[in-house]
């Protein structure tokens, strides 16, 4: 009786494309979402401009690893892309609606 392995095969172009896509989403997407988070927070935090930009930038450094973790924890690479795109759209919308800082 042969024993069938339940582990997924980790070779071939599909697996490599999956990892490559998640890596791109986890790096480029994380940078974009972090930049948009910094922009949105800098425009919406109710404090002086310099302080708001400083705090927003520091908080954006926490967003980037979270997006990278999301890219590798999502069920599939397309869900990872959709999650990052949705977060980018939401943060970009907040930054756009908030307008230029006074």
Describe, in plain words, how this protein is organized in 3D.
Helix 1 packs antiparallel against helix 2 and helix 2 runs antiparallel to helix 3. The protein contains three helices and no strands. It is mainly alpha-helical. It is elongated, with a radius of gyration of 18 Å.
Structural class: mainly alpha
What's the number of extended β-strand segments? 0
Globally, the shape reads elongated
Distance between the termini: 74 Å
Work out the oligomeric state of the chains in this entry: single chain
* Beta-strand content estimate: under 5%
Runs with pLDDT <50, length 5+?
A: none
**Rg from C-alpha positions?**
18 Å
Query: Portion of residues in helices?
Result: over 70%
Outline of the structure:
The chain is mostly helical and 102 residues long. Helix content is 77%, strand content 0%. α1 runs antiparallel to α2 (49-73), α1 runs parallel beside α3 and α2 (49-73) runs antiparallel to α3.
Question: What labels describe this entry?
Answer:
transmembrane; mainly alpha; Ketohydroxyglutarate aldolase; transmembrane helix; 102 residues; membrane
């Amino acid at each position: 009786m042969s024993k069938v392995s339940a582990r997924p095969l980790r070779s071939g172009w599909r697996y490599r494309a999956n990892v490559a896509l998640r890596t791109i989403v986890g790096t480029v997407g994380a940078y974009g979402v972090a930049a948009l988070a910094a922009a949105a927070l800098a425009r919406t935090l109710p404090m002086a401009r310099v302080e708001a930009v400083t705090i927003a930038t520091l908080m954006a450094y926490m967003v980037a690893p979270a997006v990278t973790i999301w890219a590798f924890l999502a069920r599939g690479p397309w869900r990872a892309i959709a999650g990052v795109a949705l977060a980018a759209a939401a943060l970009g919308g907040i930054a756009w609606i908030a307008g230029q800082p006074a």
